[in-house]
């Protein structure tokens, strides 16, 4: 490994990767490092062992969950969220053969250590019965 670099970039999130790439294209000698055993920063995808280590400590996951390589869990959802009308517009233009669209009403996110439902559409519930139906 070389001893001298023009730039040292710490972290492998999106902005760090873009910065590292731009600097190296400009001819600078770049060392790109991350403290984690995976790349991608907060938007990474983890296998089962990495996921278990991150949220359960150093214990290994139970064997009944299967091989770690069978898992690839996104820490941040990576699908475009759009109003229903735009999704229908994509289908009408026959882009659905190249782009798979799904209609989702909810997603789940980890908030303050708890798994919580998060709305995926822009419409807010109009009545109490809508709120119950939408968030039940």
UniProtKB/TrEMBL annotation:
The keyword Zinc-finger does not apply. One of its GO terms (biological process) is vesicle-mediated transport. The keyword Membrane does not apply. Coiled coil: none annotated. One of its GO terms (molecular function) is Rab GDP-dissociation inhibitor activity. One of its GO terms (cellular component) is cytoplasm. InterPro entries: FAD/NAD-bd_sf, GDP_dissociation_inhibitor. Keywords: GTPase activation. Belongs to the Rab GDI family. PANTHER family: RAB GDP DISSOCIATION INHIBITOR, RAB GDP-DISSOCIATION INHIBITOR. This is Guanosine nucleotide diphosphate dissociation inhibitor. It comes from Dendrobium chrysotoxum.
């Amino acid at each position: 490994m070389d001893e001298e670099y023009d730039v040292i970039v710490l972290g492998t999130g999106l902005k760090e990767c873009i910065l590292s790439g731009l600097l190296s294209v400009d001819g600078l000698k770049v060392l790109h490092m991350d403290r984690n055993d995976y790349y991608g920063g907060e938007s990474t995808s983890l296998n089962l062992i990495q996921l278990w280590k991150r949220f359960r400590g150093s214990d290994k996951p139970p064997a009944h969950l299967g091989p770690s390589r069978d898992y690839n869990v996104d820490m941040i959802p990576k699908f475009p969220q759009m109003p229903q009308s735009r999704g229908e517009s994509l289908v009408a233009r026959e882009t659905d053969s190249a782009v798979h669209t799904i209609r989702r009403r909810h997603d789940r996110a980890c908030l303050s250590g708890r798994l919580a439902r998060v709305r995926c559409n822009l419409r807010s519930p109009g009545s109490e019965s809508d709120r119950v139906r939408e968030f039940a």
